[in-house]
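ok so i was messing around last nite and threw this chain in just to see what happens. nothing serious, just curious
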Amino acid sequence: MNPLHLSNQLCFPFYSISKEIIKRYQPYLAPLNLTYPQYLVMLVLWEADHVPLSKIGKRLQLDSGTLTPVVKKLIVNGYVEKSRNPDDERQLVIKLTERGQALQEEARDVPAKINDVLGLSAEEYVRYKEMLDDLSVKLGLAEEKETC
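result:
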């Protein structure tokens, strides 16, 4: 086995699959006026509203230079608002607007549609998700069942 052969790399299937899955989200997110990174921010806020920007960045593993334009676009779209934390003026807090809260219902079927596109059975979905979660923990990217 040649360790430098592309087909022997673990990283390449992750790279290509990630790109393809994100591309498959586009037709379902476009009617919601969301890009994939914006969708991820909204998922975090639908779990827990009034979240410090730094916590969103940590949860999504995005630096502020990447996250700030995403949040700005969500503000322009009327989905979120930002404010200063009254207990710590240095901290920006992001919260859902009524429109952003209502969007959650519109987005509710996106995961099922993606699963249909992937053609996974419920058992396969659980198996892949558990394997990826385990790998994430091993890489120090996530703690088990981390939430905001």
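not much to say yet. The two ends are 43 Å apart (CA to CA).
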